[in-house]
Specification:
Length: 271
């Protein structure tokens, strides 16, 4: 029997046990009650309340504009919808980079006001002090290395990271630093699969990949991408499981026709 089936609630310790048992971790983003409930009932291990809400929920070009208050709101909605999954919330840009005092205060706000189980933040050696302080306060932290979308204006591109030796070596060192600082897991985004597998094997904590190959201990996708709600974004790493954009537009189109023609509501749909 898998670790996944033995537990009633997924915790950070469950993820460590899953890695030790060689069982892959499934993670998906969610931003509201209804989808969180569906994903939880489907058996997803981890729900990430991602700052990708800035893109897919608010329509911004990057993740930079979303605020801490907005992330807390989305997290509150998600937490109300789950019974079993572990809920992780992104610390948004500007809520932790300046110093560890602000980082800790932001993490405490998310935990107290949303009821989530963990926070996630981007970066390596530059955020280690913040991670240590947050973990010391009793808040579980998931790290994030590789392509870090909050730094898009620094990178200037969403291309694969750590292809060159110098950046790859920094990522290896940063992964170890995050583990030593107390992170219970690390997201590896858009890095070469060979490097991701090497890093995953070198750590005792699980890695969650997105565009980082099958050698990670788990995988994460943005719900809007994998469900086909947004068909304009089709990176190489994405596997689309539904085409909801087509289905929703078809359904709404039929509804419009039925209303315009007087077919809806029918006698059976009236009191």
């Amino acid at each position: 029997m898998s670790v996944h089936k033995e537990v009633k609630k997924i915790t950070t310790n469950t993820l460590l046990k899953m890695k030790a048992a060689g069982e892959k971790i499934s993670m998906i983003t969610a931003y509201d009650y209804s989808f969180a409930r569906l994903f939880d009932e489907a058996g997803i291990d981890v729900i990430l309340v991602g700052d990708s809400a800035s893109n897919v929920m608010a329509g911004h070009e990057t993740t930079v504009p979303i605020t801490l208050d907005q992330m807390i709101y989305h997290a509150q909605c998600v937490v109300r919808g789950i019974d079993r999954s572990l809920v992780v919330v992104d610390l948004p840009f500007g809520s932790y980079q300046s110093n560890s005092d602000i980082a800790l205060a932001s993490a405490i706000r998310i935990m107290k006001e949303s009821g989530a189980h963990s926070i996630k933040l981007e970066g390596g050696s530059e955020v280690v002090e913040s991670i240590q302080r947050i973990v010391s306060a009793g808040i579980p932290v998931m790290g994030h290395l590789g392509l870090t979308p909050q730094s898009i204006y620094k990178f200037g591109t969403y291309n694969v990271r750590a292809k060159e030796n110098e950046e790859a070596e920094k990522l290896r060192k940063d992964a170890k630093l995050l583990e030593e600082a107390g992170c219970y897991a690390i997201v590896l985004e858009k890095i070469p699969a060979v490097l991701a597998a090497e890093v995953s094997q070198s750590l005792s904590i699980p890695t969650i990949g997105i565009g980082a190959g099958a050698g990670c201990d788990g995988q994460v996708l943005v719900m809007h991408d994998m469900l086909g709600i947004n068909n304009t974004f089709k990176p190489r790493f994405l596997r689309q499981y539904l085409n909801l954009q087509e289905q929703i537009q078809g359904a709404v189109g039929q509804y419009i026709k039925d209303v315009k023609s007087g077919d809806f509501p029918s006698e059976k749909e009236s009191y």
